[in-house]
Amino acid sequence: MAEEGRVPPGQFVTERWPILHAGPVPEIDLESWRLELFGRVEQPVQFTYSEFMALPQTSYRCDIHCVTTWSKYDNLFEGVAFREVLRRVNLLPDARYVLVHAYGGWTTNLPLEELLKEGVLLAHSHNGKSLTPKHGWPLRLVVPHLYFWKSAKWVRGLEFLAEDVPGYWEERGYHMLGDPWRSQRYRDDPEWVNGDLQRAQRGVFRWYVDGER
User: Fold this and answer.
1) Could you give the CA distance from residue 152 to residue 123 in angstroms, rounded to a whole number?
2) Distance CA 49, CA 175 (A)
3) Residue 127: exposed, middle, or buried by beta-carbon count in 10 A (0-12, 13-18, 19+)?
4) How confident is the model at residue 205 (pLDDT cuts 50, 70, 90)?
5) pLDDT tens, 42-87?
6) Residue 112 vs residues 95, 144, 164: alpha-carbon distances, Å
7) What is the domain class of 32-39+46-165 according to CATH?
8) Nearest to residue 71, comparing CAs of 18, 137, 114, 129?
9) How far, CA to CA in Å, does 60 sit from each of 40, 74, 101, 107, 125?
10) Measured between alpha carbons, how far is 147 from 211 in angstroms, rounded to an integer?
11) Residue 197 pLDDT > 80, yes or no?
């Protein structure tokens, strides 16, 4: 049951964790896996999986809210805080946005200031167990204060940018920020409103639904 003040507008609460993504789950080899930090940086940085796992670990308990209208309470994610990762790279002064790159060609965009907020981490575990491939193993971003499509699965790179550019779903009509408390499901910026907003609202952009855990 939804608790008053805990669930954003238009959401319902589920105890399950629905699995939704675009396309098939990528096959990832940990030996060749890399997390790359590049773009508007003084020097690109990359981590192997063992190097990433050697970074200081943290955990954060949060609710998550999917743009498809479900919410799930009390998720304990474990991984490395975004702020901790950021300490390993020197940004250029104009770096204000991040384009998150994932295996399978998936991307999503976020303002850097949103990634510096409390609870944002690169997670490898959920509720004490390693993430499953369908939920983003070996590494997914967790941005608990935004709609969960912004919490990209299968992360492989963080590209720092001077200007905001749309990611995979944002190019197809989803909001550039995605604040669930403001019901920011669809794009409302001038460039988009003059184009494909109505097509997005009719739901022509389909998720690949892969059941629930």
Assistant:
1) 10
2) 32
3) exposed
4) very low
5) 999 999 999 999 999 999 999 999 999 999 999 999 999 999 999 9
6) 8, 15, 10
7) alpha beta
8) 18
9) 29, 10, 23, 24, 11
10) 19
11) no
Which pair of tokens denotes residue 29?
């080899």
Answer for the pair 71, 8: CB distance below 8 angstroms, yes or no: yes
Among positive and negative, which fits the CA dihedral 140, 23, 11, 171? positive
List pLDDT tens digits, range 86-133.
999 999 999 999 999 999 999 999 999 999 999 999 999 999 999 999
**Mean pLDDT score across all residues of the chain:** 89
CA–CA distance, 78 with 83 (Å, rounded to integer):
14
Closest CA to 8 of 60, 68, 59, 76: 68
Residue-by-residue DSSP string for 169-205 = TGGGTB-SS--GGGT--B--SHHHHTTTHHHHHTT-S
Identify the DSSP state of 57: P
Give residue limits of the domains in the chain. Answer: 32-39+46-165
